[in-house]
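REQUEST FORM: STRUCTURE PREDICTION
Request ID: SP-0412
Submitted by: Lab K.M.
Chain count: 1
Length (residues): 189
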Amino acid sequence: MFTGIVEELGTVISREGPKLRIGATTVLDDVELGASIAVNGTCLTVVAWDEGWWEADVVEETYARTSLGALRPGDPVNLERPVRLADRLGGHLVQGHVDAVGTIVDAAPDLRISMPADLLRYVVHKGSITIDGTSLTVAAVHDDGFSVAIIPHTAAVTTLGRKGPGDPVNLELDVVAKYVESLLEGHRP
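STATUS: Completed
RESULT:
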């Protein structure tokens, strides 16, 4: 579990087949083999590291279902380690499981995202949503997506202040809403 509070802005060093190498420092403080680190909201497993970088194996399905497939060397990425039980929950509960890739319509500070229509039922005004691993509050819901307000601090310390119209972003919807829907519908096959 994560909180959606980005700890560090890392940089893609390389992407060779399944190997994704990320430049970072803060998230390496207590790293160990098999540790989880969220990259733009996608939970990945550390398989190698050294001073200033770490590496994950990323399967083709993950590249295809997230915006990670569009990453190139030099691209900035949002990084977060999992929450510890003793930590404050500064954002909201985030699993690191991307539900969809949205597209930026309008850049920050009034960030507007288009997304698949079939998932809009999980987006509510003043509800929580995760964009590229960043916990945010929905400011408005539209027919084709939603808007959030990006404060200057968030724009400076995440990728969201650097992205513009047409850029893909990973979306994780509120897990509580998905569970409530599942419980109300009964068990789905």
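NOTES: The chain has two domains: 8-80, 100-185.
Reviewed by: T.R.
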